[in-house]
Design brief:
The protein is about 30% helix and about 25% strand. It is α/β, with parallel strands linked by helices. The protein has a 9-stranded mixed beta sheet with strand order 16-13-12-11-7-10-9-8-17. The structure holds nicotinamide-adenine-dinucleotide.
Length: about 350
Amino acid sequence: MKHRLAIIGYGGMAGWHHQNIKEKIPAIEVVGAYDVREEANEKARENGLKVYSSLAELLGDKRIDLVTIATPNDFHRGLSIDCLRAGKNVVCEKPVTLNAKELEDIMAAAKETGKLFSIHQNRRWDRDFLIVKKAIDEGMIGTPYFLESRVQGSRGAMHGWRGHKQNGGGMLLDWGVHLIDQAMQLFPEKVVSVDAHLFSLYSDEVDDNIKLLLRFESGTSMLLEMATNCFILQPRWHVSGTGGTLVVEDWSCKGKIVKLREDGEMAWEDDIVYTEAGPTRTMAPRPRHTTEEAPLPEVRADWTEYYKNIVDVLDRGAELIVKPEEALRVMKVIDALFASQEAGCGLKVDI
Ligand code: NAD
């Protein structure tokens, strides 16, 4: 039996859900949409969807068993709870809510109704992320101890509702939630400290250029940076491991691993090296014979795994990949990062 899906909020991201499900997920039929804007409803009609005149009409449509919520962030909590209570399974866009407490309310409704609730953390299937994960999991650079994960642009202000606090705008909630989720997938261990540097260069209301530091229980640390004011880009990933360094340049995933050769012992008694900035041993270039270059690992990156998993959970009782409990930890980290910004310093946490 096909699952019948309706989309709430038929804006930019909804079009993406609609198109991709239609082309790639045969077990789901996108049937209808509901939006508060007439132009959005017109678009949904043009794309062959039934347009509901109210939320109540959508919730009362017995054919619909799955709803995707793609509205601005401040509506996620209320709409998710309404849908769950109407007996629908729910996929909610990220950030799932504005804070951890709101998500706990949704989780209580999911428990009470026994319906599925998941969050569209689609960047778990980004190729650059999967490359880094595979390299770490396979020990390709030894033990990672400091990772830098960046998305940088120079387009200035946050667009539309993303520039308003009331709508849950700002970079930490918009992109932060993706990069923190990825970080916590790489290191599924306790986060023990957070330090947020949130800059508002283009807005009086929300953060738009941010640097976040997370420290994990094992001692591994991550710097996450998201910028809209960066005119000279740094690599998407720079990962320091005990046995080498990994760089992924950008979303096209050019990059490399440079690691120590097993037979590449360096003789410290070698003469001091004279660089343009004077003599040094520690910071001089390493003799070439002591390192080797390796390509980044091959990975299969397929975003459709997200909805395939939703179908598998509903039809075959499979394990949900993006779990509300994981999103709750991410939201707790985000709450702590806002508190760190407020305090003006790093904070110890136990998340
Ligand atoms: P958008 O502004 O393009 O679309 C939002 C739509 O929701 C609009 O058509 C608006 O009229 C409608 N809407 C507003 N309030 C509503 C309500 N109460 N009920 C019904 N419809 C309502 O925004 P967008 O870029 O599509 O973002 C939507 C959501 O998707 C956000 O949560 C955003 O963070 C998320 N998103 C996720 C990704 C991703 O990669 N996972 C990418 C972009 C956006």
